Amino acid sequence: MTRKQRRLYFVLLGMLALGGATALVLTAMGDTLVYFYTPSEMAGKQIGPDRRVRIGGLVEKGSVAKDHETTNFTITDLTATLPVTYTGVLPDLFREGQGVVAEGRIGRDGVFHASEVLAKHDEKYMPKEVAEQLKKSGRWQEGADTAK
Amino acid sequence: MIPETGQFALILALLVALTQAVVPLMGAASRDPARMALARPAALAQFLLIAVAFGALMQCYIVSDFSVLNVVENSHTDKPLLYKISGVWGNHEGSMLLWVLILSLYGAAVALFGGNLPEALKARVLSVQAMISVGFLLFILLTSNPFVRVDPAPMNGQGLNPLLQDPGLAFHPPFLYLGYVGFSMAFSFAIAALIEGRVDAAWARWVRPWTLAAWCALTLGIAMGSWWAYYTLGWGGWWYWDPVENASFMPWLAGTALLHSAIVVEKRDALKGWTILLAILTFSLSLLGTFLVRSGILTSVHSFASDPARGVFVLCLLGLVTGGSLVLFALRAGKMAGGGLFAPISREGALLINNVLLSTAAGTVLLGTLYPLIADALDLGKLSVGPPFFNAVFLPLMIPMVLLMALGPFLSWKRGDLPGVLARLKFVFALAIVAAIAAWMIAGGTAGPLWAAGGIALSAWLILASLLEWTERVRLKAGFWRRVRNTPRAAHGMTLAHLGLGIVIAGITGSTAWKTEHIQVMQIGQTIDVAGYQVTLDGIEDNVPGPNYTALRAQFTARKDGRVIVMHPEKRSYRNPPRPVTDAAIHTNFLGDLYVVIGEPNAGGGYVTRLYYNAMAPWIFMGAVVMVLGGLVSLSDRRFRIGAPKRAAAAAAVKA
Questions:
Q1: Predicted ipTM?
Q2: What is residue B326's predicted lDDT score, i.e. its pLDDT?
Q3: Cβ–Cβ < 8 Å for A72, A84
Q4: What are the structural domain ranges in chain A?
Q5: Does A64 contact chain B (CB < 8 Å)?
Q6: Of chain A's two ends, which shows fewer C-beta atoms within 10 Å, N or C?
């Protein structure tokens, strides 16, 4: 095998890997990306139950109702609200009035069926996306402790 | 006084590093031995000064000196001593100090053990190493000084994030950094070789042990982090494709590729330019990881600070290092023409495919990790790239890699005999299929997914082929021990590391496919069947005191085949800072873990509990340990200790 043939082999191998990876990435991106919305964005968009999405906002005060291992609560961005149902154990930092992100699908009944609920590790902050949305809608109070 | 000493030592270290970055490099260019010789004492002095600074900060933590802001923000008098010490690197400033400490440690190691390195190469390596030091010392002194005082000093501190108060996590960052930063050695050697315009077998033989040491530390660091996530986050998961995990995984993938391509440079004098490029990219990915974690651009338990100045600084450093070295590479790579020619089907060819697949995998992980940031910047909407993406992209790349990984060691250098190798592996193939079907049937047959059998087959294929390759090497008959002893340690190391990965694959497959999960409200006295274990909630004790928390402590009894196992999961409330933390109880029988979590009390009586049986999960961590052992055995190979052949001899050997 000459040097030139070897170089050709390298290039072909590289292109094969790159092409394969691109194909994989494109197919995967088509159906695995999870978009993040606030309740008001959800209200404005027609998102069917076939798409997994993330919803972020605050857990509305007084909305948490537990029934055995199922918890129903409402996520609010102080403009719109969205009812959520979740079966499982909530994260340690899940609390009323605090920032939360739920991942799952919207049901035909208009209730969001979460398969995963994330509460921020750090008590001082709410999820960054939520904070940005609140700032956008003008509901953000600088320095205010929204956790209480 | 002590914090000021630390700060002063840091400033001195910066000055030493500046000198070390410039003078030996100039000396190497003008062949001036006196100026080149400066590199050694400078590297040692720099390490000692940074060690003094680090010691000073640690002292502030141990005695709880609350006049230091960093201690106030991250420590508390009621913490156990271990977490006062681990608190030093449990925050942004301290962890950056640890970063430069390890960086200078590697420099000092080259100065001490690099006796057989040519003077000019050593001078250049240490200069490049010092340039990185300068960047990070400036970063600490300008944006993240750990020694800032507060006046008046508060009575007590705010405490360390309780999630980080865990023995597994106390040692996770040092090992991770030993790995991350260890790749700076390969980088410095690569840059030195580019300046010199020479890469040869001797060069590869110097680079390999450093890369291997870094790889071992990084593997262990990642495994520790994963294990910590497994037993503290209370989900029974061990890998989340979280951006911060990816930040450590990308350098691991690239570093693994580098480890393998350096073999080709050493043995066959080929793939030189590629190896240099890989060394640059591996360290760049380490820096990128530091940037992602330190800039606070990603929100996670790891991002301590979100000060934009810091992010911009690390980003500039990253741009400078990566950009500068790639320009140097573009200018000089032409000189790196390889020597040894080889056929596509050969040991070199197999290692090359391994490299292509590993770096492609690193590339796709990089894309998935950065895509949310790119999409946000381009206003494409807020989105997250989660496990489904990574599984869909990463696994198809890894399956051919593992298939080939079993074949590679059987192929000879230059030109391999693929049909011959396949014929030798017939029985391994048949056995792997049998093992997969057996495992699948034992795990409940159609109760588990079909792909699980594929995963086990892959694992068995790799394990059995590695064992076969080893037995063919040492032959199981008279003279066995002599041949075991005479086989290079590096060969034993490879077998172990490949076996380790096989074990990890079995663990990943089993824990994903055959995990059983029960979430329910349990009354006291109630019993639930979890994978053959009769698990009873015996009772609950509230307000159990811990060193700096109180806990809700549950007692479970698990019974199986007459054995009785008592388990105590807890729900802890830490005082400083006040925060609840779940502490799972795990019982392992080495084939699987019984994993018990106690949750909230239910309004109608009883407690929410989560009971898992994570089949094969311990194999993931055991396999990782076997991989690290393989790396260490390989590191003890005598040719690394004796050192590289003399350059002239190496050059002659290549010509011959």
A1: 0.77
A2: 93
A3: yes
A4: 1-31, 35-136
A5: no
A6: C
